[in-house]
Amino acid sequence: MFGGNGFSDISTGVPRVLNDFWLYDIATGKFKLMHPGSFTANATDSEMIEIPEGRHLAASCSYNETLFMFGGFGIGGKSLSDSWTFDLKHNKWTRLLNMSSAPSSRGHSGVWCYNSSLYLFGGLGDKIIYNDLWVFNMLSLKWEEVYGLKNLTGLMGNLVYPMGRNGACTWVSNNVFYLFGGNSNPLFTYTLQQSTGLMSDLWKYYPETKVWFYVSGPLFPGHKSVLNGIGTTVDSNLPGSRISSASWTDSHGHLWLFGGAGNDDMQPDAYHTRSSKLLADLWRFHVKEEGWAFMGGSKSGDIQGKYDKLDAKKHTSHPGARTEMMVWKLKPNRAVIFGGVGHDGKGIDGYLNDLWSVDFSEVTENDYLISTLSLLIFVGLGTFSLVMVLIILLCLRQPFSATVRRLNMGHSAKYSRLINEESMF
């Protein structure tokens, strides 16, 4: 985890863009400082010889023990266009100079880490929204433009592609790139968090054929969330328009989305002049059925967090509404969410440094069990006795009654807080 907007161990009372580098150890559940950056009491002159300036919302991917980073927003919100690598073995930054071609300065682009490539879509520049697509080869250290700026409406004859945006949610599933929501207003500011321009459309892109497909959702901004029940994929379900959500995939390749800043289930005003709400809802997109399901959290925005004991897996605990958080997927069906801007346990707004784990293994096991039972019923038309044996084996693996109750519960995923806020940097 590099930089961000927040506080270091040198307290000034005012948040600033940071350039420290941290590593989260999955085995121990602890953070390790890899590089102190410029704004810490531990910084030394030798470590400041070559280091990226402080920034947040940069694009990054890692490959073969090396982190690759591009752009972001620096001091005063200025958009950046520099490219860097960080050697995890030697804790060393290197700036990539003399780039023959590279994206223009921008931050908060859509990013897909795919094999040895970093794909970058759109982003916010200095009062301009991009919808161009670039790929960075992490072996040759070269940028290549897949296509340049297009008509920003996103529709042009038979050509279909997303309109320009920043802060979209992205996933890679079964060699397909997905992109959801984000902001389409070039005058958007992170201080005001306007709801004007926030989208809720879903797109997919095939990198091998370089073709976009529109999947679902309105093609214009400002929509509330629509949810019908919990844990059920329904065509009319739709996460509200939003920006800066957390995203990950499960073992079936389904797309998960948590929080962000945008619209909850209340209809936004006609002119979308209000600031967006901080969200704490949890959604899943079923890639085969191509539909959304509300999986838990809060359907209403701006809620405070519920903090139970550390490492306690309870359906009553949940993170407060937040945006611009970090997320890491832990195999097979677990994700970790860190920090962001949002509400703490007392409902106070600010920069957060709490660490949460969301366990969705029971949900994915339910999917496996249901799909397996459907297959057995089909095959069992001719082999009833064999089906009965297999059903008994499946029931021994996990009680079906527990599966049904899980789908009917208010929260289909478990949250547990891993680290106390006061114990971290």
From TrEMBL:
GO biological process: glucosinolate metabolic process
TM annotation in the entry: 368-396
InterPro entries per UniProt: Kelch-typ_b-propeller
One Pfam family recorded for the sequence: Kelch_KLHDC2_KLHL20_DRC7
Statement: the UniProt record of this protein carries the keyword Iron: yes
Alphabetically ordered keywords of this record: Iron, Membrane, Repeat, Transmembrane, Transmembrane helix
Protein name per the record: Uncharacterized protein
Organism annotation: Biomphalaria glabrata (Bloodfluke planorb)
Source organism phylogeny: Eukaryota, Metazoa, Spiralia, Lophotrochozoa, Mollusca
